[in-house]
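Newbie here. two chains, one complex. Structure please?
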Amino acid sequence: MPDKILFLVADDVEDLELFYPYYRLKEAGFVPVVASADGGTLTGKHGYRLSADTTFADVKPEEYAALVLPGGKSPERVRLDQDALKITRHFVDRGAPVAAICHGPQILISAGRTKGRKMTSWNGIRDDLAASGAIYEDGEAVTDGNMVTSRRPGDLPAFMGAFLKLLSAAAKRTAVPAR
Amino acid sequence: MPDKILFLVADDVEDLELFYPYYRLKEAGFVPVVASADGGTLTGKHGYRLSADTTFADVKPEEYAALVLPGGKSPERVRLDQDALKITRHFVDRGAPVAAICHGPQILISAGRTKGRKMTSWNGIRDDLAASGAIYEDGEAVTDGNMVTSRRPGDLPAFMGAFLKLLSAAAKRTAVPAR
């Protein structure tokens, strides 16, 4: 069965930062699953709509291979939800691949999982990341262990290239060896 | 030098059908180049903006490995431009990979390059494709020779998967054999 990848999303998400990873993961054979607070229809900053597949409260994070946190104004809503923060900690703490772009790292700040990590973000929240203990770098895709962060929609090609490498490496680690 | 891939675009392009292929080709190491009638700033149906790199009149199609025709209301404008139609015929007639999605096939109709080809499109222009001599099929990515067509944004993963296969096969045909 193909691996499921979880997205944590609220309204006013940066549409391309939701749909590029969503379609790209489908293209690579994964099953993207979108969770929101109420499981209803989400509307992006640019008006694209998508029905959530599940709610933050119903997500069992151990069923997912990795986590994606798109940007826009969505992360300022998602970070207020305690279930979303618990889910986020689960992925970081078990060392599963985590990808956050633009304002997505705001969720990692609220989850308390940025200290000592090399990270980037939208430049407007750069100082918040640094204040939370992250080591800020200005790069199109900054990888630290199993976490990759990017700055803006134009970084999406590098962001997804780096994230797919993390997914491929994680799949090799958990594969059952052939006998 | 990486291969350049040409996009023919006008205002009110379906944003995801421009940006998903654009970023996806960058991720795969190609150089996407956007041409428009006047070479100015393009605005998508959902408000995303992108500066064109060149004009239809200035394009030398022989410098490009392949052609992408995104949908939305853009193709109804592009198909009125005689330079854009000449460019389109150049790619089809030399057998270079051509990818058209949603309303993108309208440009192929006006260029007179649909007769006898298995194709799909947005369902609202299905009858126009059939009337122009195409063999209409309802599929997420319909490949006929070096042409791939798709119906809508949700087909983008299959569309780009199929187009990248065509690009890879074309690169092998034109590669200089190792000695």
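Moderator note: The interface with chain B takes residues 15-16, 19-20, 23-24, 26-27, 46-48, 153, 156-158, 160-161 of chain A (CB under 8 Å). The mean pLDDT of chain A is 96. Thread marked as resolved.
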